[in-house]
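Hi V.,

You were right to ask for the full record rather than a summary. Here it is.
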Amino acid sequence: MAGFITVIKYVAMCSLSGNLTFSLPGAIARMTAMPITLTCRACKDGKLHEIVSRREFFPNKKMVSVELRHVQCDACGAVDTLSAQHADNLRRLAARKAEYGEQLMGEEYIALRKRYGLTQRQASKIFGKGLIAFSRYENEDV
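Predicted structure:
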């Protein structure tokens, strides 16, 4: 029974619509779950529906578009990201590294700065750029 509850929790996190078919070890060979409706955490009233947004990056003057998955409440319009969607979004963002070659991605600028305990202002002085320029590098707005 504990394994069944774990599977149901996983389905609740990963599924927003449609029928899921998955294999379970042991006596239950196959199971089809009914569509699961998630309730909004913000208003506690609306239902969540999956939405897709696009984020565009321009490494080496070439556009790279990444689809990111989220959920949106049909009542209050709040947008949230489920843990499974977050993990998938991170994989999608990391996959764009191939387009950058030797150029650093925004996340890499942030990681380097934080590794050495620097503020954006301190890092901008070290790199010889202004604070706004460094912020743009981190946000990939250049």
